Amino acid sequence: MTSIQLYDTTLRDGMQGEGMSLSAEEKLRVAHRLDVLGIDLVEAGFPSSNPKELELFELLARERFAHAEIAAFGMTRRRDSRADEDPALRVLADSFAPVCTLVGKTWGLHLEKVVKVDRDENLRMIAESVAFLVAQGRRVVYDAEHCFDGWRDDPAYALRCLRAAAEAGAETVVMCDTNGASLPGEIAAAVSDAAAQLARSGVQLGIHCHDDAGVGVANSLAAVEAGATHVQGTMNGYGERCGNANLVTIVPNLQLKLGHDCLTSEQLATLTPTAHFLDELLNRTPNADQPYVGKNAFAHKGGMHVAGVMADATTFEHLDPALVGNRRELLISELSGKGTVQARADAAGIALDDAGSRRVVERVKELEHRGYHYEAADGSFELLLRKESGEYEPLFRLESWRVIVERRADGKVETEATIKIWVGGERYVRTGEGNGPVHALDNALRAAIGEIHPHLNETGLVNFKVRILDETKGTEAVTRVLLDASDGQDVWGSIGVSENVIAASWDALVDSLEYAVQPGRERHEQALRDAAQTGS
Amino acid sequence: MTSIQLYDTTLRDGMQGEGMSLSAEEKLRVAHRLDVLGIDLVEAGFPSSNPKELELFELLARERFAHAEIAAFGMTRRRDSRADEDPALRVLADSFAPVCTLVGKTWGLHLEKVVKVDRDENLRMIAESVAFLVAQGRRVVYDAEHCFDGWRDDPAYALRCLRAAAEAGAETVVMCDTNGASLPGEIAAAVSDAAAQLARSGVQLGIHCHDDAGVGVANSLAAVEAGATHVQGTMNGYGERCGNANLVTIVPNLQLKLGHDCLTSEQLATLTPTAHFLDELLNRTPNADQPYVGKNAFAHKGGMHVAGVMADATTFEHLDPALVGNRRELLISELSGKGTVQARADAAGIALDDAGSRRVVERVKELEHRGYHYEAADGSFELLLRKESGEYEPLFRLESWRVIVERRADGKVETEATIKIWVGGERYVRTGEGNGPVHALDNALRAAIGEIHPHLNETGLVNFKVRILDETKGTEAVTRVLLDASDGQDVWGSIGVSENVIAASWDALVDSLEYAVQPGRERHEQALRDAAQTGS
Q1: What ipTM was reported for this prediction?
Q2: A304 contacts in B (CB within 8 Å)?
Q3: Which chain A residue has the Cα nearest residue B465?
Q4: What is the tally of structural domains in chain B?
Q5: Which residue from A302, A304, A463 is facing B114, i.e. has the nearest CB?
Q6: Is A415 within 8 Å of B470 when comparing Cβ atoms?
Q7: For the domain that residue B167 is a member of, what is the CATH number?
Q8: Do B214 and B327 have their domain in common?
Q9: A223 and A183 inside one domain
Q10: Taking Cα atoms as reference points, which of B244, B155, B239 lies closest to residue B198?
Q11: What is the pLDDT of residue B333?
């Protein structure tokens, strides 16, 4: 059916949510993931609202994207001034972004109480700002703020605002439910009215919703059914208050249920990992109940459900989880677990028999009950598979370790770790220093093991995350540490769980290094190197 | 407008969610809270599916409710048998519950693949089961499972199922979107069709939705607009997979936005505490972004938003938070301006002039660039305000601290922290042990300061979160620690940022304790205590 333009504002409006913060480098990674997912327009923010945004646009200008285009965001010109003399519009015109999104007022209440601009001047602000950027060679998306509040109050004036942007050359005018006040019926009526009135102008109509009434997704769908072909939203519905409309839910609804054209099926199958990547980057617990991509979204509990799903999945599943990159969870069936384990072992080239798979399932069940979580710890999970298959070689035998962190009287902080380990009948005592305890332990361990496994020197820690589980239990709570390590090509995760954050970090660190030196992995790397040489 | 019957199935369908578990006593407390909220029908489960359910019905039978009626839940009779000989129907007939809810099949696919019952026998199962309970003096709610899947497949048969229940004397027939497959348009079409076809039978039409497509709330609203007057759902949307339709969102939408009659305004004002009570009872972190009742639902960030809300709340709030028992929050971030800072200082009783507010804004901008983040660290933010206003008293002068974490050869992990500080010209050297470095530092610090500020012994750490910022930079990355502390009534957050996780934890810990002992805060607490005494 209709082709829908997807506009992601995670990096701008999503960042308005409580506790949301990403560095410029991290935002760049997000932009690339959105590109792979197939998002058409990635809104990156205002190119110079602070040093971090400035840095981001400098980074973005040098990047190549397969499909996505970057949109810079700004406001209409200040009142009673000229667009071509407006410093903020000049910043947009000077940025590399091919698309500029401008936000402006639509609602009389805001004109009177917030910005104190008269209605005709507001129309000139819209028209002149859009025209200025169009004259500078930019494609312009015009975001009509509080459009539905304006529509309820004075639909004729709201329409004049949209028309001002359209006639000044905007490619898209977006009706924004900024306060999230509207229900689907109101959205449908206003969009279909606007679509009819603006039909001749040839402008594309867009929708931007928030979830304050819990209907942000339904509102976006209602707008598309009423004629909008550009949909704004954020990943996982991030955003201030109750969040923006959730693109992760909207996209499969549009594509799989309403038959619109948004993404290729390969792109759609990356939806679940992309959604989880964002949560991990933001150190947020992924919402297990999230439609389509949540861990529980296709979980089945209770005998009849499971039997029904086994007989014919359509009896209890509204669609095939693989379409969105998710999978079925059978909460009471060991069979499903075994199959997954087997598949993972096969992929890693580990020979695991039926009894071994069953032991892994039992072990994972027991460990997850203690707070382990293997979704983001593929390295630790592979070690677990190896342990049950017999293809595991411990890196060393531990005698003891000790970490000292000291803030001296002169204000300097020093960290030192000493380890005592046995490798091949020989005792190694090594001390490492570092920026922090994990870094120091890592250095000490590498000082010992690097002599035997020199290629470990090419690997390093790239990420470290700590979360308290069961926070309400206070000091009895356990700490979960997730580490990511990389050898420059591959990245693997490992996990440690303990009452003590340093002990949990140690366990994750050891897994991280052991994973790197497993013979299976070395063979795999050699095979990759051989293949690369043959190819060159 | 129309009066809507609210049917809560938290105690039955809500309990199907992952990790959901309540004792019979706890379920009784829930029933009473739902009664106070004004729920019409509280579904409690099957009166004898296990000993816990049996105990619950025994407890419920002795209770008095102001308004709510208890519904017992069961299935239609087994195939090829008699309703009056069906043991499960007999249990319902023997229970005290004035309302019995029966679930039965509507969808051909399930009849063929899951229960293997022919279509005519299914109609007899529905009719005879309903008639049996009606003859036993019960009011019957009939839940037509997979009704919308059935409607898509064979609307005539789905309608015959509804009609069978209606003609056998059911008070209400409920169209269930059991798999959560439907979108609002389909729901509206099927309900309005059913309403027209069943108009003469006088039966009440109900709706029961799930959130698999993220539109459970919108589907419920669409059904009401199409003629349903009985709405089933759960508190906070608990339920299997993506959850049931969320009554906490549906009710204010129906009442405040669509003008239906559900609760009194006094009852509606208990919505937020009731929703939080359920989360507390289930030991779940309340969803801060939840529409209407979430902590962030009426939170404002960004200078213009805050200025607008201060001028006229309707500019940025879709309704008054007090209507649902919630309140407004002003968040601090690099994007917010002087107005927000001033408002926060006023709320904390700190005298901050215009120049001071400006200094705070500049300071926050600079600190946020270094990785600080004050939204979740209200305690640290208040200290920052105090520092700029001159109303700040440091807790101590630090000389040095040292943390040792050791994993001994016997496998035991020991943690010890020593601090050297000066308070009022006197030097304190104290050592603390703990589960981890933060716990040990906390103990050492309290050992010193607790002598001067004994009420610190009533405060404690309740949460600890660590994140690496700019993870791609590896070892140059900084670590951000967020701590939450509580004195049993109030919870405050503090933050520390450093290359070293222990140093960052130390900074957050000091803020956390300093916040607790600021004279302003102590005065505030005293005022609260005085008010409480006068009131008693």
Answers
A1: 0.74
A2: 114
A3: A467
A4: 2
A5: A304
A6: no
A7: 3.20.20.70
A8: no
A9: yes
A10: B155
A11: 62
* Rounded Cα–Cα distance for residues B190 and B162 (Å): 12
Residues A101 and A237 both lie in one domain: yes
Asked if the structure places residue A403 within a domain, the reply is no
Residue A49 located in a structural domain: yes
* Residue of B46, B111, B113, B212 to mutate, testing the A interface (most A Cβ within 10 Å of its Cβ): B212
Cα angle B135, B136, B139; round to 5: 85
Q: How far is A346 from chain B (nearest CA, A)?
A: 29
Q: Do residues B93 and B136 make contact, with C-beta atoms less than 8 angstroms apart?
A: yes
- Angstrom distance (rounded) from CA A457 to CA A16: 40
Quote the pTM value. Answer: 0.74
Chain A residues in contact with B301 by the CB 8 A cut-off are 16, 18, 240
Question: Are B381 and B361 a contacting pair, CB within 8 Å?
Answer: no
Residues 119-148 of B with CB under 8 A from A: none
Same domain, A276 and A362: no
Minimal CA separation from B349 to chain A, in Å: 24
Reported as a pLDDT band with limits 50, 70 and 90, residue A333 is very low
Contact in structure between B8 and B244 (CB atoms under 8 Å)? no
Q: Which residues contact B448 (CB under 8 A, 6 or more apart)?
A: B396, B419, B421, B423, B428, B430
Stretch B27-51: mean pLDDT: 92
Q: Do B221 and A184 touch (CB under 8 A)?
A: yes
Count the neighbouring beta carbons within 10 Å of the beta carbon of residue A330: 18
Return the pLDDT at A337.
Answer: 64
Q: What is the mean pLDDT of chain A?
A: 89
Provide the angle, in degrees to the nearest 10, between the axes of the packed helices B51-61 and B24-37: 50
Which of B281, B316, B347 is the endpoint of a domain?
B281
pLDDT in tens, B419-432: 999 998 999 999 99
**Residue span of the structural domain in which A252 resides:** 5-281
Only one residue has tokens 């004898």, namely: B48
B contacts of A29 (beta carbons < 8 Å): 472
Q: Beta strand A69-75 with A41-45: parallel, antiparallel or unpaired?
A: parallel
State whether residue A183 sits within 8 Å of chain B by CB: yes
DSSP code, position B106 = -
Number of H helices, E strands in chain A: 19, 16
Q: What stretches of B161-229 adopt beta strand conformation (E)? A: 172-176, 204-208
Same domain, A244 and A345: no
Q: Are B402 and B416 a contacting pair, CB within 8 Å?
A: no
Residue where a domain terminates, one of B370, B388, B406: B388
For chain A, say whether B258 makes contact (Cβ under 8 Å): yes
Claim to verify: residue B333 and residue B188 sit in the same structural domain = no
Mean pLDDT rounded to a whole number for chain B:
89
Three-state secondary structure of B11-64: CCCHHHCCCCCCCHHHHHHHHHHHHHHCCCEEEEECCCCCHHHHHHHHHHHCCC
Does the beta-carbon distance from B318 to A29 stay under 8 Å?
A: no
Q: Are residue A306 and residue A252 in the same domain, yes or no?
A: no
B517 in contact with A, Cβ within 8 Å: no
pLDDT tens-digit map of A213-267:
999 999 999 999 999 999 999 999 999 999 999 999 999 999 999 999 999 999 9
Backbone φ, ψ for residue B500 (5° rounding): -100, 125
Contact A400, B408 (CB under 8 A): yes
Q: Cβ of A400 and B406 within 8 Å?
A: yes
Does the residue B259 lie in any domain?
yes
Answer yes or no: do A319 and A274 share one domain: no
Asked if the structure places residue B290 within a domain, the reply is no
Question: CA of B206 to nearest chain A CA: how many angstroms apart?
Answer: 20
Name residue A187's amino acid: I
pLDDT confidence of residue A535: 40
Chain B from 359 to 418: CB within 8 A of any A CB: 365, 368-369, 373, 375-376, 398-409, 413, 415
